Recover the amino acids of this structure.
């Protein structure tokens, strides 16, 4: 029988409005998680009481409580909370690991379908479904009305639901503790010969109850933060400009794109630190330039083909941390860390 042991680590803060929907959808999964570790990142609302209720009723739900640091923090803060949960388990006890937000509604076969797809393709290292959020008129309990797709390409996984093979997660060194962690991880995995993506099958479509980029401050701040993240990751100016132009018609029209571009340009003018792996940045920019000509899906396929000879799921010398902000770090290759 194919192993299907998966652990979910769910950082959260003040999620009383949404979290019951997420937790109920986990309870209803056709293949239930072996363990769910919810990291309460200093909530000041009813979140601790709700978590205590679910943990008391489901032995496979565990709660890790962190001290209140005063405010929600996306990017580095979320990943710090994720690692607080990761430190309480041994990854070797599981086949898959998932970083999950607690503002989602997942279909009943969500994780079963992801694992089926990954079992069919051993190189598929990380997979997610597609995220949608309810339109303004969609107030029904089952979200049967208008659904608006989040702008996520087939070549990346959705940050709100990062489902990884443990082998792949270890090889990339986990998540970078900075904004754009959910883009860097995909490109690092592809560098090492893994395939990455999000499936379009309707049964894996999930609801994101809070629009992407709006959980901290407002949409302008969220989009501007995304622009800084692109700078940090290593995105080139040509690709960034083309991407912003392409995004102009998307909601919020014009404003969202301008906020992203300003966040990027401001970071460039200030010469803020960038991700510290020069080889990674070269890999990223080649992919981005090819995507301008071929489209992201074909460019990703070409990148996966070029690195296919590096794929070796057994090259797990140790859990290696990826390069830190501005640092050189240790690069994981098919033969281990160097």
């Amino acid at each position: 029988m194919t192993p299907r042991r998966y652990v979910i680590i769910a950082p959260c803060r003040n999620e009383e409005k949404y979290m019951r929907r997420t937790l109920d959808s986990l309870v209803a999964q056709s293949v239930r998680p072996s363990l769910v570790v919810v990291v309460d990142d200093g909530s000041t609302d009813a979140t601790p009481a709700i978590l205590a209720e679910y943990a008391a009723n489901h032995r496979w739900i565990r709660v890790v409580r962190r001290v209140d640091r005063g405010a929600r923090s996306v990017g580095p803060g979320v990943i710090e909370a994720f690692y607080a949960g990761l430190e309480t388990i041994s990854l070797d006890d599981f086949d898959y690991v998932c970083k999950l937000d607690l503002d989602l509604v997942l279909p009943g076969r969500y994780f079963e379908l992801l694992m089926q797809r990954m079992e069919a393709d051993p190189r598929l290292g990380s997979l997610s479904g597609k995220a949608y959020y309810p339109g303004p008129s969609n107030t029904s309990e089952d979200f049967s009305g208008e659904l608006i797709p989040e702008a996520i390409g087939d070549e990346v996984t959705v940050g709100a639901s990062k489902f990884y093979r443990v082998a792949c997660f270890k090889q990339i060194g986990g998540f970078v503790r900075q904004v754009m962690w959910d883009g860097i991880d995909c490109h690092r995995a592809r560098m090492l010969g893994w395939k990455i993506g999000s499936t379009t099958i309707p049964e894996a479509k999930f609801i994101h109850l809070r629009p992407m980029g709006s959980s901290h401050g407002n949409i302008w701040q969220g989009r501007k933060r995304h622009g800084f993240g692109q700078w940090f990751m290593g995105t080139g100016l040509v690709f960034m400009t083309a991407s912003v132009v392409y995004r102009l018609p998307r909601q919020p029209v014009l404003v969202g794109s301008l906020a992203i571009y300003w966040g990027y340009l401001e970071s460039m003018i200030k010469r803020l630190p960038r991700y510290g792996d020069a080889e990674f940045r070269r890999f990223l920019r080649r992919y981005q330039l090819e995507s301008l000509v071929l489209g992201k899906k074909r460019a990703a396929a070409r990148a996966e083909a070029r690195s296919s000879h590096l794929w070796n799921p057994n090259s797990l010398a140790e859990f290696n941390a990826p390069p830190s902000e501005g640092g050189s770090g240790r690069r994981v290759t098919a033969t281990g860390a160097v």
